[in-house]
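# step 3/5: fold
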Amino acid sequence: MSDAPPTPVRALFFDMDGTLLTRRPGAPSTVGPYNLFHILEEMAIQKRIPALEIKSRMNRLREKDMFWEWSEFIVALELDPVAFWDFAYHREIDLLGPTTPDLLGMMQRLRAAGFQLYITSNNPVTGILHKLRILGLGDMHGAPLFSQLLGFSDIRALKTESEYWLRVLARTGWAPEDVAVIGDNYQDDFLVPRLAGISRFVLHLPAEAPPNNTDGEVHVVTDFADVETVLMPLAPTAT
């Protein structure tokens, strides 16, 4: 076995739901990345827009472009954006939270170690910012710890497609060997990005985890706090 130090990782692509963010104990299983649709409907009903009209406006937007943005629905339903995002935050803050208590500290330490941080998500950018606000990692105006938020509406592809990961590499300017993907889905956060040439992965699988890949491509952790332990030896400042 070679004693050469590992090749450093320079960029970390973090998934959001199930990776950085999880349901709080007791939260209903319906809470997820598209729970905002229910909140949009609830606010529109409060404005006395008929339920059928709400459904019609939302369906027209989804049919017009599969790579929609939450802002389009806010405008279509004539909602006040400040009131909507505040309402959504207070509705979900008791339902969603970080996968590890010291998530902010972990992200700060990873940045200090020389990693560039990114979010890769099947949520639009405004949805990502909303979730980062819940996590205390940003707000609706930005997320300073992250170099880019790579939502599906901007990339115009889903994480289930290798095209998404090829476009993410093109958008960020990193070579596949420079990055690691951190996620919770064996297919979307490992098998598919591997097709784009990415070769290093950390999977947060708290339930029944598959064994580590024998060639060292993927590290499986059951406790998200262990992600930092896996990544730090690969930091630019450590090699």
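# step 4/5: annotate
The first helix runs from residue 36 to 46.
# step 5/5: archive (pending)
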